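User: Sequence recovery, please. Input:
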């Protein structure tokens, strides 16, 4: 009865925390992806729903086995295994780079029609690849609300959160200070560079797919063995002692290190960003735009 009372109390506490968080949540700035920022700050890319599932898994395993280490491992598995066993992040970044390439080419073509850079940026949001539709749409809304062009472009780079987005934003900021001079050539060159990068990444992803397959098979084996150990009480009885919990923690730690190492082998590291975000959050209702003055820094 004690374990069930503890589980019930933990669920009530979690519900109260989520209720207070929802009631006190502020509206996000335009272009900000939905989700819990506090939880994402702890483990990037993990949604509040995943955290709730991890809590349920922890309580369920604790109630069934009464092994604290197993409960913690189950919660960690719910949080981290989807990221380790899938190449979704790599595919998403490749799709983002490909979308940036198409957008840069389209924007360069718009600038050849003697159109102002700000007008071309706003018009480009009407037809943009899905992978960057949110950031480009937020950029257009900021510009239409007369936000400063440089601040809007820096916010756009922050929304993309990729060095390629920084390069595009920096090129557009420089072009704005020069009244659009040379923007077509720079955007075309960046599009060519992004195209080569995308082609190389697709070849690398095809070669490294075997690492993801290996991680999935190891995960299936570990899950199957765990189910067997839980069902076979005679086999798993030693794990209920303090030394058994220590051994279980060591084994789980070694598996976690091995899976993380395999995931790292199958991942393509990204270079760090170099463009700073705007000093304050930029919203469409920001202060009136301050158009750049040629030859004078802002």
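Assistant: Recovered sequence (298 residues):
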């Amino acid at each position: 009865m004690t374990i069930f009372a503890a589980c019930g109390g933990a669920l009530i506490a979690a519900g109260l925390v989520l209720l207070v968080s929802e009631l006190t949540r502020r509206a996000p700035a335009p272009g900000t992806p939905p989700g819990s920022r506090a939880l994402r700050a702890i483990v990037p890319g993990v949604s509040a729903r995943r955290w709730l599932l991890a809590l349920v898994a922890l309580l369920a395993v604790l109630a069934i086995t009464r092994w604290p280490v197993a409960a913690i491992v189950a919660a960690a598995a719910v949080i981290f295994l989807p990221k380790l066993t899938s190449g979704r992040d790599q595919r998403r970044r490749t799709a983002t780079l490909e979308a940036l390439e198409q957008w840069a080419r389209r924007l360069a073509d718009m600038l050849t029609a003697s159109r102002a850079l700000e007008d071309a940026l706003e018009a480009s949001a009407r037809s943009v690849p899905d992978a960057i539709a949110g950031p480009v749409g937020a950029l257009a809304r900021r510009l239409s609300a007369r936000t400063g062009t440089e601040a809007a472009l820096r916010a756009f780079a922050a929304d993309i959160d990729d060095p390629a987005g920084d390069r595009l934003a920096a090129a557009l900021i420089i072009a704005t200070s020069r009244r659009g001079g040379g923007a077509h050539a720079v955007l075309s060159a960046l599009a060519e560079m992004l195209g080569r990068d995308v082609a190389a990444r697709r070849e690398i992803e095809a070669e490294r797919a075997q690492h993801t397959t290996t991680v999935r098979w190891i995960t299936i084996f570990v899950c199957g063995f765990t189910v067997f150990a839980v069902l076979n009480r005679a086999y798993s009885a030693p794990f209920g002692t303090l030394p058994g919990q220590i051994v279980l923690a060591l084994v789980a730690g070694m598996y976690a290190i091995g899976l993380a190492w395999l995931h790292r082998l199958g991942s393509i590291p990204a270079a760090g960003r170099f463009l700073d975000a705007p000093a304050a959050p930029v919203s469409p209702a920001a202060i009136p735009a301050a158009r750049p003055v040629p030859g004078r820094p802002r």
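Residues 2-84+209-265 form one domain.
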